Amino acid sequence: MTKAIFFEREFEGKIVDFCRISNPGMTDIWEGPVRSTDLQRFSEEWQSYKKTKKKVKKTGSKLNDLPGMSEPRRVELELHNIETIEELAGADEVSLREMGDPFVQLHKVAELHVEAKKAKEDLVVEVAVAAQTLAEPEVKNEPANNSTSS
Questions:
Q1: Are residues 61 and 28 in the same domain?
Q2: Within this chain, do residues 75 and 27 fall inside the same structural domain, yes or no?
Q3: Are residues 50 and 69 in the same domain?
Q4: d(Cα 28, Cα 22) in Å, to the nearest integer?
Q5: Which domain holds residue 67?
Q6: Which residues on neighbouring strands pair with residue 124, listed in sequence order?
Q7: For residue 104, is it within any domain?
Q8: pLDDT tens track, the chain, 150 positions
Q9: CA–CA distance from 51 to each of 12, 44, 46 (Å)?
Q10: Measured distance CA(85)–CA(59) in Å, rounded
């Protein structure tokens, strides 16, 4: 049975609805901007896609911000419900391996990205505490010197 998956993808500088059509047992896959014939043939899938498209986007860093991320890889990850760098960092490596070795490498880059972001946030807190400490008036524990020297 022919299967269709709808998704968003950047095309000629715009975000466009795309369709991926595959037949089980065949290696050929058609993928392109949604056509009216796709909407007619796969109306249930289209309606389901439109409902999920209205969902609020997840919070986190965009996959596009990850070094080495390409548009086709981003789309593939989003088809597997991985929409942020943080989700990719926390994804199951076995599942990513099934998608292909580049996704395992992107997983490792995402983990490093999340670690670096956390280290940066920790450093910002440390600097803020140090700045606050320096801003406080200095208290001396020395006795007052009331003697006058001649």
A1: no
A2: no
A3: no
A4: 7
A5: 56-135
A6: none
A7: yes
A8: 889 999 888 888 888 899 999 988 888 889 999 999 999 999 999 988 888 776 666 788 989 899 989 988 988 898 888 989 999 999 999 989 988 999 999 999 999 999 998 888 888 888 888 878 777 766 556 555 665 555
A9: 25, 11, 9
A10: 10
Residues 63/66/72/77 CA torsion (nearest 10 deg): -50
Which residues, 6 or more positions from 30, have their beta carbon under 8 angstroms from its beta carbon? 19, 20, 21, 22
The total number of structural domains in the chain stands at: 2
pLDDT reported for residue 106: 95
The three-state secondary structure class of 142 is: coil
55 DSSP 8-state letter:
S
What DSSP letter does each residue of 73-87 carry, written as one string? HHHHHHHTT--BHHH
> Cβ distance 41 to 6 under 8 Å?
no
69: Cβ contacts below 8 Å, ≥ 6 apart: 63, 106
Q: Tokens 């801003």 map to which residue?
A: 135
The verdict on 40 and 106 lying in the same domain is no
